[in-house]
Amino acid sequence: MAVSLQGSLFDATEEITPRPLTAVRRTPLAHGAWVDVLPGWLNGADALFTHLARTVPWHAERRRMYERTVDVPRLLATYRAGEPLPHPALVEARARLSAHYAAELGEPFVSAGLCFYRDGRDSVAWHGDRFGRGAAEDTMVAIVSVGQPRPLSLRPRDGGGPTLRWSLGHGDLIVMGGSCQRTWDHAIPKSTRATGPRISVQFRPRGVS
Ligand SMILES: O=C(O)CCC(=O)C(=O)O
Ligand SMILES: [Fe+2]
């Protein structure tokens, strides 16, 4: 008894498990876009946050903006198709997402992009994930959020509608699908409120970035 109790205390990976995806709720959006949301998808999300914050090789980036080079306001890590993910719970999460969306997506999620928002000054500006195939084709981007919640905002690119917001942290799942990457933009706005750290994990199919 004592041995198995110790095992469960020390093996945090045992505790981090996704709930069934059958509970996911879809919100249809204009222009053939939609989002699926499942609050608290990952049990043990706080332990996953701590693990990722400590062990992922986070890097800061600088990007050229017009005449200036500016700091990208978040830390980043990228795991391409075939590269080992930083925690087995993410392998499990990706497999569950790939299985759940197999018929609709027609291909698996392969890459994982990680963003670390240290506080309210960190953010991602309005954009769609349309460097790759998302520019021309329907696709999906599935995002698991751990740590403190931050609002993810979505607005139609043509300006024809209000901005929508989902507060995402502590194991919440959002999947952007249909035409969402080319007809809508998303952002994690800066906040002047006291804001704790959040990590997002974005799973994408091949060629979507
Ligand atoms: O942190 C998030 O939830 C969104 C990140 C994002 O949109 C991106 O990296 O493309
Ligand atoms: Fe994005």
TrEMBL record:
The keyword Cell membrane does not apply. SUPFAM superfamilies: Clavaminate synthase-like. Keywords: Dioxygenase, Oxidoreductase. GO terms for biological process: DNA alkylation repair. InterPro entries: AlkB-like, AlkB-like_sf, ALKBH3, Oxoglu/Fe-dep_dioxygenase_dom. Residues 108-207 form the Fe2OG dioxygenase domain. The keyword Repressor does not apply. PROSITE patterns: FE2OG_OXY (PS51471). It comes from the Bacteria. One of its GO terms (molecular function) is dioxygenase activity. PANTHER family: ALPHA-KETOGLUTARATE-DEPENDENT DIOXYGENASE ALKB HOMOLOG 3. This is Alpha-ketoglutarate-dependent dioxygenase AlkB. It comes from Streptomyces buecherae.
